Each structure stands twice: as C-alpha cells, then as structure tokens.
Amino acid sequence: MGAGYNISMGTTTFDPDALRDRYREERDKRLRDAGNDQYIEVTGEFERYVHDPYVEPIEREPLTDEVEVLIIGGGFGGLLAGARLREAGIDDIRMVEKGGDFGGTWYWNRYPGAACDVESYVYLPLLEEVGYMPKEKYSQAAEILAHSQAIAEHFDLYRNACFQTEVTAMRWDDTDRRWVVSTNRGDAMRARYIVMASGPLHRPKLPGIDGITTFEGHTFHTSRWDYDYTGGNSDGGLDRLADKRVGIIGTGATAVQCVPHLGASAKELYVFQRTPSSIDVRNNRPTDPEWAASLEPGWQERRMENFNNLVSGIPEPEDLVADGWTDIIGNLLIRIRRGEGDMTTEGLATTMEMADFEKMEQIRSRVETIVNDPNTAEALKPYYRQFCKRPCFHDQYLDTFNRPNVQLIDTEGRGVKRITPTGVAVERHDATGTLVEEEFEVDCLIYATGFEVGTDYTRRAGFELYGRDGVTLTEKWHDGASTLHGMHSRGFPNCFIFSNVQSGFTVNFPHMLNEQSKHLAYILAEAADRGVTVIEADADAEAAWVDTIVSLSQMNQRFLESCTPGYYNNEGKPGDRSVKNGSYGAGSIAFIEVLEAWRAAGDLAGLELSAP
Prior knowledge:
Elements: E1 7-9, E2 12-14, H1 16-28, E3 39-41, E4 66-72, H2 76-87, E5 93-96, H3 105-108, H4 120-123, H5 127-130, H6 141-154, E6 167-173, E7 178-183, E8 188-196, E9 205-207, E10 218-221, H7 227-230, E11 245-249, H8 253-265, E12 268-273, E13 279-280, H9 289-294, H10 299-311, H11 324-337, H12 345-370, H13 374-379, E14 392-393, H14 397-400, E15 406-410, E16 418-419, E17 423-429, E18 435-441, E19 444-447, H15 457-461, E20 464-466, H16 473-476, E21 495-497, H17 509-530, E22 534-537, H18 539-551, H19 554-561, H20 576-580, H21 588-601, E23 607-610
Parallel strand pairs: 4-5, 4-8, 6-20, 8-21, 10-19, 11-12, 11-19, 12-15, 13-14
Antiparallel strand pairs: 1-2, 3-9, 6-7, 7-8, 16-17, 17-18, 22-23
Helix pairs in contact: 2-17, 11-12, 17-21
C-alpha cells in the first residue's frame, strides 16, 4: 500500500501508511533513555505521598505468632485467595494489609469520579457468593469498596487480620520450614505458606521532574486524595477549590475520571498532557431490576467467560457485555467471518491492524465532535494503536475542555519541563513555531502519574523477599522473572505469587485473580491431603515455563515496540527483561486451560513436594 492509498470501512476512510508514519513519529518524540527511571520512588522525602489519609492510626503490640497461610494484600487478589481457601476448608488464615481496611486499589483510590471501567457485573468478584447486584453497569469507587468489605465479612476474613500493617521483609527459615514476616510494627509473624497478592496498582510513583521538591503550594497524589483541601467527596462537589488555581500532571485513566470534577469546581484548571488517552463512549446506566431478577445461577461466571472470550478474539454467539472493550474485537471477528484478509498469522495481524485503525479514527473523530476549540481537539487526539495504552471510557472528560476555566497544556510529547516554587513550566511552540518556555502558576498541584508497574517486583511490593540461602527475589529476577505458571519461583518454597508476570492477562483482571485463587486452593488442599509441608518449583519445570513465555512473546514484542511509551511496554523499553516479565503469550483462555489441565492430571507436575 503506497502513500495516499485510502481504505474505507463503514463510515471511516484512512491511509494506513500515513497512520503508521504518524504513530511512529508520535512514539519517537516520547521515547526517553531513562525508561522507568524517569519516575521517582515514594521513599525518603517523598514518603508523605503514601501516608493513609482515610483512617486514624491504631496502636498494637508486635506479633510473633504463627499461622498456616499468610496473605499479603487486602484487595481483590487477597480477598479471592482468602475466599477460595475458605471454600477449600483452610481455616488458619491471616490477611496483612497496609491500608486501614480491605479494598486494595479501591481503598486507596477515592478520587472524585473514581469508578471501574470494566463492566461491574463481570469486574466485581464473587457477586453470586455474596448475594449482591451492582447498582450500575460501571460501579463507583465507594460501592466497590463496600463490596470488598462485604466479601471479607462473608468469608470471615476480618478474623485475625492485620490492618495498617506494612510488610518490610519476608525470610525463609529452612530449619523451621516457615516464612518469617517482618513489618513496620515490629512483627515477626511466622507462616507455613505466604501468598503475595499485593497487586500492581497500589504503590504510587512520581515523575522525576526538575524542581519537584521546590513547589511551595499544596500537592498530593490522586491515590491519596486530600479532601480536607479540596472539599467534597468521591461524588465531586470540590467546593474548597472555588478560589484555587489547580494543575494536574497526567492524562491517564485516573485523570480522565477526576478532571471533570476538578473542572467543575476549580477557579482555574490546567491539565498538563504528554500523551492523550483514547476516550470512547462510557454510557453508564442503572441496573435493570427485571434483568437482574431473570438471571439464573452461574450467570456471573458465564458472563465473565463471554467477555473474556470476546476480548481474547474467540467468537461468541452473543456479546453479553457489549461495551467499548468488546467493540474492536467484535469488529475484527465480523471481518474474519466475512473472509476479509488471509488466515495466516501475518494476515490476521494485518486484519487486526486495520480494525484498530478504524476504531482509533472513530475515537479521534469523536474528539472533533465534542471539543469546540480545534487546536485543543487536535491535541487531544491519540495517535497509537488502541491497546498500546489502557483505553478509557468517559462521557464528560472531553466536554470539560469546553469550560472557560479549563486549559489543556499540551507539551507536544515532551512532558513537563520543570516545577517551580509557584507553578509548572513547559516548553512548546508558539504561533511563530518558536520553542518557548511558559510557566503556569498554581495553588495546588495534583499528580495523576500512576503506580509502580514496570519496576522490580519487590520495589512494586514495597518489601524484599529472602529465599533459600538469603538470596533475594530481586537478585534472582535481575535479568527477568523465573517462575512456574507465574506462581512459584524456585528457591522461594511455599510462596505463591499473584501477578500478570508469566501468567495469564485479561482486561478483566479479577477474572484472572479468581483463576489463580482456585489454583492456589487446589494445591494447598492437595498438600494437606498428602501430608506435604513444603512445595517448591522444580528447576527443569521452571526453566521450561520461562522458555515457553519467551517463545510465545515474539508477536507481542513487535507490537509493544511500535507503541508509544507507557507502563504496558515498560516505558518504551520492551527488551529481553520485559519479555520474561510478560504474560503468557497465547492469551488468558489458553493459560486458564493450562492450569485446568494441570489440575486434572492430579500429579502436581513440576512441583517438588516434601513432608516433615
């Protein structure tokens, strides 16, 4: 296809070569040699950004007792692990959570407008088990937090739980065959098994912008929203900002949800953008009570599988969820059924690319129809493949830029130049094409800069893991992760890891956490039945799994290399380490089938089992 070759699909016409060139240009201008090192860890002088603003501190004596299973993390991963272990008859469980209650990312993220962007009927886990139906298609944060607490109540997970407790280190005692868990409260708890379910979206990160420590106004991270300063609550109504000039750095999923509330309340709002998000229709609506009453037992699992199949490219006779996530895959499947394109791997990749081009052209056209100022509209158009960054869905974000008190400060891919004592300075081209620096004075600076995702696992977790002979997980994974099924890592017996690393990945993350939890419960129940007390990955089995991860990563690697930088592609550096740290390349459906077949075989293949 030469330059100027236009393709028409539906109502959309585009030039594939021109789009590829534009995507490449937009990627290249955002590449940074620093990669993930362009972000600052929230330690030392930045530690205040992780303080809990939601509860009063509690005091308790240090614990030196012992439990059978210790689960780190009170979010969906920890809750699902605890629930499935309870169902398997395992009673001696302790949950350890640094927040003041269960909820995980939904405990921390209470910013105005916070809500799930995957349909709540498939996203909120254990709805049938708890007996709850979400109020809307996309639940708000307060409802999700309350549901998390209801899960904990239903499965008796509050019993023996430790809140406001942050793990600082975990060490394997080979003599006692126990893990010793140290915390910021002086604890030295012991556990036969530990479950690492701390999740990827709980430890905030800050941008390494020059002058970040010099700002003299008020500042906070979105995951620790300061309602004492802004007023209001997660529903909005930020009345204390009426006389304030507010700046927000970051335009990802969090900013997309909170910017409309900031724009409605602040005297002035400056939105500092390096890369625009793709913003599709959300179309939230209340749950239909007649539909809810018509559901039969097992409805949630069927709906979850329907959604996961569609976003994985597996045809379904009906799209039960019918949202933006399934739309692009649905369009692709329609073309495949029509016989458009060839059925080779490369042919399917091309067909997928064409469907992606069409979808993103629709996203960009939507910006034009909503945003009045043509320059602002152009700056808000995303030029990359849709799944290079997490797609966003919102019905008020783009409209916010029509408010007279709201300005988009597009940095043309450079990001913020520096922070001053009174505001934020950026470089951008003026009307004559000259690159000039401009400062915007603000009273309050909000960081919507995301979480530790692509960094070392132990940095993301916030603590170090010491296995056999004192070897740390950071040392073992220095050149990339090494696991069996993403859950076991040799040298770290009786340790079970919940993450996307070398395991399955799906848009609906709780679905995979549920599968990992069922797998965990099976293994520990089998261990109890067989009198096993130590479980560890076999070296050959682990090496074979790593080889599988690497061999399946090639096509995904090429895709990530073409993407604009973000946490999906290790900030533009999807190298060998990222290949090993990636998910199972054959997709979530295939990964679930691997686990199911492994359990069906019943021989616990690839695990070394020891009895007392």
